[in-house]
Request: fold
Amino acid sequence: MRQALFCALQLVILLFISISPVEGAKILPKTATPTPGSDPHSYAQPEEALITHLDLRLTIDFDTKTLAGSAELHIDNLRKTTRLLLDTRDLTIRSISLDEAKIPTSWEMQVGEAHLGSLLAIAITPQTKRVHIDYATAPQAAALQWLSPAMTAGGKHPFLFTQSEAIAARSWVPCQDTPSVRFTYAAVITVPPGLTAVMSAENPQAKLASGVYTFSMPQKIPSYLLALAVGDLEFAATGPRTGVYAEPATLKAAAWEFGETETMVAAAEKIYGPYAWGRYDILVLPPAFPMGGMENPRLTFATPTVITGDRSLTSLIAHELAHSWSGNLVTNASWDDFWLNEGVTVYFEHRIMEAVAGKPYESMLEVLSMDELVEVLGEMGKDSPASHLKLNLKGRDPDEGLTAIAYEKGFFFLKMLENHFGRKKWDEFLRQYFADFKFQSMTSEKFLAYLHEKLLHNNKALAKKLLLDAWVYGPGIPANAPSPQSPLLKEVAALAQSFSMGAIPADKIASKEWTTHHWLYFLRKLASPLDGDKLAQLDRTFALTRSENSEILSQWLEIAISAQYQEAYPALERFLAKVGRLKFLKPLYTALNKTPKGKKLAQELYQRNRQRYHPLVVVALNKIR
Ligand code: BES
Ligand code: ZN
Reply:
């Protein structure tokens, strides 16, 4: 009897707590503004209660530009805590309930720093296993880009895609948005008739009349690898476990361009061990896609600007594929360790390219890498803390860490280690690294300790000699950096110099065998500024203003802007209206901004095109002065 009464009392208390109004809830101290947890870019405290699985149900509405539905989080309440702290950004929470009984609970939102979004604190019990959140996204959600039919290849259907890295997942899924937390997921996505949905998960290969697509991702992933795209998509196989998704108008060219993907996967496996994710497919996005590529597991997202018709830019695929090991299997614990994702990936990318395209080709990539590193260091200053591999991005947007340092300095660090230890030992080390730390997160400190133990056998003198600390914690390029050589590019540079000096005319430039990389190098090695006559001569001979290769065209346009070569301006305007890739837009707007007249044009063009750019591109372009 007493026990029954006690139970009833407990129930009443529980009910009272769960239906108490949001304002009444004391989940968080009243005055506090949220402080990040162990990851400076997340309000979550995963060491208290950990998300292990996500069940997502969303309906896509192109008219209101919103996703609405629910996220059910499975949690492991490690410290038997009574609150779950999540990251959100511009989400509207409708209701939250707990466990299978869907017991309503209270929650609180606290606005944080602009780039971090808002903390969502949810009242749970020590026994809570599942948290069910009904919510909707905002039209301006940082991760989402909504394309009108006019911005697609087919021109008839709208298109939606996500870009969650680095910390934009929270703008479409309430979650512990830190790369140090991993979870499996399942999703049910409802789309308008005639469209296909694909995710970073097991994907359909045909359209479903119902418009209801189900997905499952059985391997644990960090939130930044959550990805979704919706559009008029079709699939073409490029091998038994590889294929391409694209709009019908792009599919054939895309499938040909990426026709060597199966070979790349096999080459990668031979170097660093089995591919862990089942299928490897590529989604080709419309040209508004802000990145070159994004390593969403099982489904790399790629810009169509690498479709050149000669497979000369497929190192982008090698790069995103390499992330299936570095990044997706062994993941940077926070964005301060971004080089562990990108630097290791560029190293692996080069190894894959060496295997499929040969050493002379890879050497070209190395020279281009070093040139880029030197250029970027020139801009940031060689003593800048931004040139450390290990970053300190606390209090700043992690996208600020997205520089060539993580990529190229990271690459040369590993290349230096390969050179010192020899490929055999080095490869064994890296293969073991991926095997030992798969599905885990990694810090610079942990990486160095592992290196010390396994490769240096704790030889402190050797660590000093190799300048390990200078590479990771110091600025600039350490003295023992490799100095890459490419005879192929040497010839190209010599030609650029001769032409710039007027020693040879444009039609004497032997460019017949040139790939995209030769052209880029040639254009970069031209004298700057180059006089108008010579520019016009190059254009007459090689029709550069009419180039359909976006890499070559954007490099050419940059030169044209600095020489104020008016003939190229109509092409420039078309390019800025069509292509949304930050890597191209930033240098072009920056170049325009250097003269008063150019500045005016830049402002005009930016106003006209801004609504067509991805939110992350807008943030970056707004910073150009
Ligand atoms: N993971 C990155 C893209 C990224 C990084 C997005 C940080 C958001 C924040 C991807 O793997 C990448 O590096 N893409 C490059 C292409 C690559 C060939 C260097 C890009 O998009 O330019
Ligand atoms: Zn990358």
